Amino acid sequence: xxxxxxxxxxxxxxxxxxxxxxxxxxxxxxxxxxxxxxxxxxxxxxxxxxxxxxxxxxxxxxxxxxxxxxxxxxxxxxxxxxxxxxxxxxxxxxxxxxxxxxxxxxxxxxxxxxxxxxxxxxxxxxxxxxxxxxxxxxxxxxxxxxxxxxxxxxxxxxxxxxxxxxxxxxxxxxxxxxxxxxxxxxxxxxxxxxxxxxxxxxxxxxxxxxxxxxxxxxxxxxxxxxxxxxxxxxxxxxxxxxxxxxxxxxxxxxxxxxxxxxxxxxxxxxxxxxxxxxxxxxxxxxxxxxxxxxxxxxxxxxxxxxxxxxxxxxxxxxxxxxxxxxxxxxxxxxxxxxxxxxxxxxxxxxxxxxxxxxxxxxxxxxxxxxxxxxxxxxxxxxxxxxxxxxxxxxxxxxxxxxxxxxxxxxxxxxxxxxxxxxxxxxxxxxxxxxx
Amino acid sequence: xxxxxxxxxxxxxxxxxxxxxxxxxxxxxxxxxxxxxxxxxxxxxxxxxxxxxxxxxxxxxxxxxxxxxxxxxxxxxxxxxxxxxxxxxxxxxxxxxxxxxxxxxxxxxxxxxxxxxxxxxxxxxxxxxxxxxxxxxxxxxxxxxxxxxxxxxxxxxxxxxxxxxxxxxxxxxxxxxxxxxxxxxxxxxxxxxxxxxxxxxxxxxxxxxxxxxxxxxxxxxxxxxxxxxxxxxxxxxxxxxxxxxxxxxxxxxxxxxxxxxxxxxxxxxxxxxxxxxxxxxxxxxxxxxxxxxxxxxxxxxxxxxxxxxxxxxxxxxxxxxxxxxxxxxxxxxxxxxxxxxxxxxxxxxxxxxxxxxxxxxxxxxxxxxxxxxxxxxxxxxxxxxxxxxxxxxxxxxxxxxxxxxxxxxxxxxxxxxxxxxxxxxxxxxxxxxxx
Amino acid sequence: xxxxxxxxxxxxxxxxxxxxxxxxxxxxxxxxxxxxxxxxxxxxxxxxxxxxxxxxxxxxxxxxxxxxxxxxxxxxxxxxxxxxxxxxxxxxxxxxxxxxxxxxxxxxxxxxxxxxxxxxxxxxxxxxxxxxxxxxxxxxxxxxxxxxxxxxxxxxxxxxxxxxxxxxxxxxxxxxxxxxxxxxxxxxxxxxxxxxxxxxxxxxxxxxxxxxxxxxxxxxxxxxxxxxxxxxxxxxxxxxxxxxxxxxxxxxxxxxxxxxxxxxxxxxxxxxxxxxxxxxxxxxxxxxxxxxxxxxxxxxxxxxxxxxxxxxxxxxxxxxxxxxxxxxxxxxxxxxxxxxxxxxxxxxxxxxxxxxxxxxxxxxxxxxxxxxxxxxxxxxxxxxxxxxxxxxxxxxxxxxxxxxxxxxxxxxxxxxxxxxxxxxxxxxxxxxxxx
Amino acid sequence: xxxxxxxxxxxxxxxxxxxxxxxxxxxxxxxxxxxxxxxxxxxxxxxxxxxxxxxxxxxxxxxxxxxxxxxxxxxxxxxxxxxxxxxxxxxxxxxxxxxxxxxxxxxxxxx
Amino acid sequence: xxxxxxxxxxxxxxxxxxxxxxxxxxxxxxxxxxxxxxxxxxxxxxxxxxxxxxxxxxxxxxxxxxxxxxxxxxxxxxxxxxxxxxxxxxxxxxxxxxxxxxxxxxxxxxx
Amino acid sequence: xxxxxxxxxxxxxxxxxxxxxxxxxxxxxxxxxxxxxxxxxxxxxxxxxxxxxxxxxxxxxxxxxxxxxxxxxxxxxxxxxxxxxxxxxxxxxxxxxxxxxxxxxxxxxxx
Lengths: 435, 435, 435, 111, 111, 111
Ligand SMILES: Nc1ncnc2c1ncn2[C@@H]1O[C@H](COP(=O)(O)OP(=O)(O)O)[C@@H](O)[C@H]1O
Ligand SMILES: Nc1ncnc2c1ncn2[C@@H]1O[C@H](COP(=O)(O)OP(=O)(O)O)[C@@H](O)[C@H]1O
Ligand SMILES: Nc1ncnc2c1ncn2[C@@H]1O[C@H](COP(=O)(O)OP(=O)(O)O)[C@@H](O)[C@H]1O
Known about the structure:
The complex is a heterohexamer, with three copies of chain A and three copies of chain D. Chain A is an all-alpha fold. Chain A has helices at residues 3-18, 26-52, 56-86, 112-133, 140-163, 167-171, 179-197, 218-237, 246-275, 280-295, 303-326, 335-353, 372-402, 409-414, 416-421. The model of chain A is unreliable at 1-20 (pLDDT under 50). Chain D contains two helices and five strands; from the N terminus they run E-H-E-E-H-E-E. The mean pLDDT of chain D is 89. The interface between B and C is large, with 65 and 69 residues. One adenosine-5'-diphosphate sits between chains D (7, 9, 35-38, 57, 86-88) and E (27-29, 61-63, 110).
């Protein structure tokens, strides 16, 4: 007995209910709350993944950045962000509901606090993606400044365009759970930041060839990826914003499983072929690439298409990581390739395999829908990524001139843990700090 | 109510069912089950947090204590605890339902097993808080003894007063999810224990000035805090004991997000001002402080008030930690400040920002309700904390005289892992065991 | 309000709804989705537990195996496994629904994608149990081959017998959540694999007496166990396949708490008595043993019986681990004893404490039902374990002759991380690689 | 000049360090090492005896002038005795010493 | 007396230890170190070549009497040869030895 | 032959290694150690001052021929100076060297 039909009936009986108090859909509220909690946990995943991929001397700094960017993101999103993103209709941004005052959730039946919670977790995720790309060299204060701006203003604006009833929503741009809004946005911000910051000492040789600067704990990195995958079920399946259509939730869930699975496999195989050995970090990145890739199309494509999308994402991320090195940008954790490149890929994939009957605006290219959907998806990606890149470039250069973005060379050698926080991440262990 | 009425309707259609079995509220049952599972996971958070904050030579011992105190807590709560806490009305303790035999859940529509599960997880949490405060020096056997007594008898008695229909409930004392019942109780027990045990070798100099004895893994500590925060959504939002009022659940959830976020920020700023550098451990403790602080008022205050409560909790925990050192009590993980002091703070906060329309017994001081609520909250805190302190002091001195509370000086130097369990926490790593 | 009125209306309009589209039970769908997500997270538990129990030089390899066996398991289960297990009735295996094409879920009201998801997670778990038993010496390629075969063919066949309407289901064999289907199957596969592979270099002395080869991180191992326990609530309580009977879900949940709790305690006591000191790893294994043991009977026994089952499982696993050593099989993580032996125990326990009124086929021996149930349970165990052992022995010898199962002696000494993947699990740490 | 190498048990480090400070010997280098022992310790690992033939030790290097050699050895010995009595001391010839910052060499570089 | 310092590859440790035991040399101190190598190894890290110029090595210290010096060197060499052949041995003068517990000094302290 | 033992700060390692390479000294053994320092550093731990009396240092061992001794010392000193100036160098007599693989001994084994 599906809630879906109930909802239908609800709308009939609704008016009666509405006048006194808004009628809440307890089941959908529970689901979105749980989804939000799962997405929250992704923060833990990001922090251990990124910590594991840096050297011991910078692990604490990365953990600190992950904790504080999330904290300030939720605060910034509470005060400004939500109002800009969902406060009111408008082509470019909303203007009501600062501090969540005097507004209701756009989703019928959901208390606004739960809807906000789910959205705030997304803002936190977008901000935290960057921590990895700027790891081991970015000043803590400057990082705080950046992350507040991103989650309080930049992310909400882009979010408004796509999800808040903005101009891209109007054009039928389809990004179900945020391949572009969250991941490509985070990825491109990481790219701009890493590029403005410059590479870590010793990352590139005089001739521009890259050196590997290894992380310090694969178990942490691997645990981080599993936690992220775990939370991603909330991220994608929760974007249904309710339990009204159990079959959609189910489809999203299976796609969110198949894409990362095959992504891990194809990334591993690619690494095997290119580098002789199956690489753990690339396989882990491949799983994340599959997750990022399926985030936009998760509801609008069939499991079969999800396999294609994930498989290609896995390959893309391996080449993407190599390409980022080739253009001499230093991204210690591969955030740009995984979130940026695969985020774009996932968004475009909606234009290839999306199906109208499954909720896409129109059938994708391979579904016989022609180039229409693909065109709109491309436009949307260019708009969001372009705007973010320019806006963040301004933000970073501004911060740089005021606070300075980068720590001193000595601090970089000694490690940010000691110099910026006066802490040691691993007391008692004998460690080669400059290995 | 929610589902329950429809069950009623359902039962109409299925009269056969009605007379024998009680009607269960499937949605609420699911929510409380999930909440209990989330609270269970906090156990993992406590264990990695506490393990990360001790030295390598004692990490295994802390992990062991965390596993066993939870195990014995659930057993003790099954055999004795639940009956004392919820077994029957009565001013001071209940007396029915040993082994859960022949009783029903006090909450309409919830199977007693699920209600028990949720409550048992709380008992486990209360017991485990202490593991950190007594770390690196308390005998394993004595720890087992203490934790069984706490979770089987002491905690249930206090719990009965507040939640089991005891005298404090009668007076209108409001502790929604347990700032006092769980956290202040655990914190004060830790204080008594740490005080009776005495400080670790080398913690205080002759002149009483404290030395820092660093933990061994910030990544573990930080992961632990994220896991705790994750589980806390179950802890607080689950204390609604059902999905009957989605808006209350939603309010609890948003407050449980804003308070720790701002707590982490204010704690970091305080540490920055006081100690020149932004400290990771204090920021992490600040997040926990915010969570502990909002636990009592989470349902009865607005998000705005939650920000105040969390912000003050964050500052409180930094000063609290320094104060504990100043009175020469050695609390390796800061449990007393975080759970004890902020637990008290959170309970009193109900008397300041609590609102009757949101479920508080009466409006708080800042809500124009005068000192009434604040008075009752203060009384409740004094009663619970006082009783616990006295009872546990007796328990610890008793255990001390029978089993001895503290390990030998040699064992302390060599580490409890080797001497008490014959294990090494980190095989293969080159470690300075006495660093 | 919310749902309640709807449902009410539903009961009226329900019949009308049914004819057009399959009506989904939103609540049950949500529960099974969440349960599947919890079971997914067990993968993270397995990977950190197993990584923590091997030496640093092999940690990355274990993590890689855990990631890839899960990925290939879901793919294999999508293409072949599900069809074989649930595709169609039939005594020995199903033959429809390859790629999930054109079939519906056997459970009324559940979208097939969600049902598949839950089942796929089980297949992944079965495959991953083996990773621990073959750790530190099995070739990566051969491991991939094995895990695909297990999850795509072997597991689904056994699963079909018991859960897919096969011959054992017909006989009334009761394995609620998979003590046999998942755990005994994984355990016996691990036994066969470890036996065919032979022990690690230095595990057994010339006289056959075993040496201990310690793991490298107890915190990881301990975190892994907590994650597994956390996920197990989804594993067992989710096997209700819906929220139709809240009281059953509740009973499963409480049993899934009491059994591991007492298992940890009895295992600790046993280790204390046998080896003078309370052992952390054995206590952790005891908790897992309790979980494995209660998996089959979790729904059909009372909490009291769960205590017995868990307590005995805890003792069994300690002796089991010693016994595996005694027969000179090298199981680095104790998977055979925990999953194999306790899986068998749990299945038989249904024949001892199972109660018809609680869902067992017939009352167990101690419930006055005589030997009937016990006989069928024994038969089922023998059939499943026997078939698996033979099938896997063939598989492993086949792989051995084609790819070779074992790495070279040099690789084993240097570690699989460097030789098979060219990675270091802990960069910067000073480590005795051959300790 | 001599280079003293003392191998002690980790738990002896505080006592030995103290003893050296009392003897006004303030400079040393410590390394955590594995050392053999007369009798092998036995740990338990999941119920299996673990013959630990290499035990955790701390290796202290102390460079001193010939004049201070005996004082240093006595100090170390005292520290060891106060904390269990284990410990082995090796003395090697020290040919030269350089303090980079001052460029001082020879025994003067030790002050 | 001499102090022998042998730097070997980690995987050579079991063989070398065995060889020393067979030669009835039972005491040693092991440290995990990083050593340069004639040819640098190449690891892969996320697809990027990683020039590892400092490789994991084990540094063994063995103090022996002059009489046993050659026996010890042969034993170590044998152990190294059985396990790949890498390895470097350094021998320094040992001026004195002290066993704290007994107070014995000089070569007698080595037994 | 001489065995040079240099104790430097971790962040000095790159510079010192480079300086030695420039002086064509390519072989060395590095250990991470804890060393005392003239002035103790102060870290903060949860707001409590942490007197770190033993600081992370890197211990470099370089075996050279007498002919190269000064060159090596200069190189190390230069490297240290370029990177802060801390650092202590100890020189001990080296009685013999063996390259296991070739069996070469004495100073020839150093090439
Ligand atoms: N001949 C030797 N060569 C090198 N190291 C030695 C020698 N004899 C002893 N040692 C080192 O000194 C440490 C202490 O030796 P000893 O005092 O005999 O054992 P213990 O410390 O257990 O009493 C040993 O663990 C070993 O590391
Ligand atoms: N001149 C030297 N000074 C100090 N240590 C040296 C010297 N030559 C070799 N070593 C140490 O001995 C180890 C083994 O040297 P070698 O046998 O040449 O390399 P490999 O072990 O790779 O064959 C080196 O890794 C280094 O740690
Ligand atoms: N007399 C000594 N014996 C042994 N080691 C010494 C001695 N003097 C200095 N060292 C080592 O050399 C390191 C560097 O010494 P020094 O240059 O005085 O301190 P810093 O490096 O802080 O300037 C010290 O940390 C210590 O490890």
